[in-house]
Amino acid sequence: MNWRTLATLALLGGALLTGWMLWSQRHPAAAPTTGDSPPDYILNDFELIALDAEGRESFTLRAPRLERDPDSRTMDITTPLFVIPAREGSQAGAWEVRSRTGWVSAEGDEIRLRGEVLADSRDASGRPTRIATEQLDVFPEAKRAQSPVKVEVTRPGLTMNGHHLVADLEGNRITLKDTRSRYENTAR
């Protein structure tokens, strides 16, 4: 046998082996599923008004993107702005709450905000209040918010830093643990 015949047989064997390997990998085994379904709907650049059980406005949501999970019926939101209105007859103003991401429960009774969270409102006399944190859970129907992480609350003449915020959004009352406060005289 000459060397050309051996080279031809070696090349033919290599081609058959390569073809068989490609053919066997043509239908790879299915990857295990995680149970995550694609969103059943996606909203872009929208405004949504959620109503409570009595048909009153619970909150308004504006955002560039929302995705709803069909299994859990929860919503994931990119850079949301939530407006939580004051109840009728309340002396406090509405709360505007912004963050990098948001999550809304299937019933709409819990909102989880994460990343650069800012919540702004005005009290009965028009003085502003700002809450700044990285994590805030809001319960719009109960007009309550809470955060277990570091929080900064500012009002004219007052800056409070602490942890474990509990806020009555309707009464504009805020409690913090491990608080450090700084007062500034604003009367001039």
Automatic annotation (TrEMBL):
Annotated GO MF terms: glycolipid transfer activity; lipopolysaccharide transmembrane transporter activity
Keywords: Cell inner membrane, Cell membrane, Membrane, Transmembrane, Transmembrane helix
One term under GO cellular component: plasma membrane
Domain of life per record: Bacteria
PANTHER family: LIPOPOLYSACCHARIDE EXPORT SYSTEM PROTEIN LPTC
This protein's name: LPS export ABC transporter periplasmic protein LptC
Organism: Marilutibacter aestuarii
